[in-house]
Amino acid sequence: MHPTKTFSSLFVAAFMVLSPAVAARAKTILVFPVSGEGAEARDLSAVTRLFKDALDGRSRGDEVTVAKTACEDRECALSRAKTAGVAADELVYSSFYKLGKKWIFSATILNGDGSNSFSQRLTAASIEDMEAVTQRMADALMQRKTADQAASVDNITEKEAEDDPARRRSLYRGGVAIGYFFPMGNSFEYVDSYDNFGNPEEIRGYRQMIRLTWLNTWEFRNNLQLGTDVVWNVPTSIGADASLRYLFGRGDYTPFVGGGLGLHYVRGDANNDIAEGGKRNSGPTLNAQGGMFLFRTYDVNVMLRGQYQVILNSDVDHGVAVDVGVSFGDKEGGKASSGSSGSGDGWSALEYVGAGVLTLIALSLITAAAN
After folding, report:
1. What's the angle, vertex CA 316, arms to CA 312 and CA 322, rounded to 5?
2. b/e per residue 267-289 (b: at least 16 CB within 10 A)
3. pLDDT the model gives residue 98
4. What percent of the chain has pLDDT over 90?
5. Looking only at Cα atoms, what is the longest distance across the chain?
6. CA torsion 339→343→349→352, rounded to 10°?
7. Quick one: pLDDT at residue 166?
8. Are the CB atoms for 226 and 238 separated by under 8 Å?
9. Among 56-65, 167-176, 245-254, the least confident range
10. Tell me: the pLDDT tens digits for 69-106?
């Protein structure tokens, strides 16, 4: 099959598997204004607006509307929704009050018929923290997760950052990618046959190679993402790269650009037998890349990527790669990497490195056996 058709088939298959998540019927969510004690009316109005905006940003196309009056309990919410004649699929009510020097924000989401109720509570050290608090509460309610599970680099309060500066520095995801690598020029040529005197007789190259990648990403604030890839261009090249990417936005469909450094090895090729004094098959590797993340705010992400790669070995092997990757966060909302080991919560940094080393060793053995 033509490589372009094969790659298109891979993309269509990935899209068909994951598209039901965004193809679901849009819902109507009725949000009641935040009620509270110890807060001025303008502060309650501001918190209501922040909370509504946070829910709206995580609704994936659902219609989010604000009721005219506040509610603090289930019966009030159901009664006023019925009185207003609003056929809402889900209702959200919340309260905001001061306890000593702390602010307590509680919220509940439930179905329009009163079923499937889910509540969470968060604490803020100051009212200025309410932007982050409303964002985390929206994440928790919309995904039916606890406040701790919904924590991310974007919704940590100032007090949490001060109390535990090493906490949730990045959000980790891991996955795999498959695609094609297209060598350019005379890159990755090999000797196909020898004459009777042991000299290279026929030299061949690759039009394309299957590209397999183990993906690891750590997402930071300011739309920056660190990616480490373990790459195998079947059957002739293996290596690892570290790349920094910039993401243009925070939505479900986010383009990105980036570049990075790595180290790659190309198995002995045609010029091994031609060059005098030997040659260097491995070398530092540079890459420039760009593409698109799909379903970024879900636990499963899809990455469409194009990449130019050059290996600074004796032959300066280079080419263009295109691949489709699928990455998975933690089933409870994404693992937050703090760089500490032995916590018992996910892999430590050393375990990630160890897995990568074992993967490289396995690929090198396979490549050596193919020689």
Report:
1. 90
2. bebbbbeeeeeeeebbbebebeb
3. 85
4. 28
5. 95
6. -150
7. 47
8. no
9. 167-176
10. 888 889 999 988 888 777 888 999 999 888 888 888 99
pLDDT in tens, 324-335: 999 987 544 444
Distance (Å, rounded) from C-alpha 104 to C-alpha 125?
9
Quick one: 130 exposed, middle or buried, by C-beta within 10 A (0-12, 13-18, 19+)?
buried
How far is it, in rounded angstroms, from Cα 72 to Cα 33? 10
- Residue 187 burial by Cβ neighbours in a 10 Å radius (0-12, 13-18, 19+): buried
**Among 273, 182, 272, 235, which Cα is nearest to 364's?**
235
Amino acid at 166: A
* Residue ranges of domains in the chain, CATH in brackets: 25-163 (3.40.50.10070), 170-336+346-370 (2.40.160.20)
Measured CA to CA, the distance from residue 152 to residue 162 in angstroms comes to 15
User: Tokens for 41?
Assistant: 């009316």
253-266 and 237-247 beta bridge pairing: antiparallel
The three-point CA angle 195-201-202 to 5° equals 140
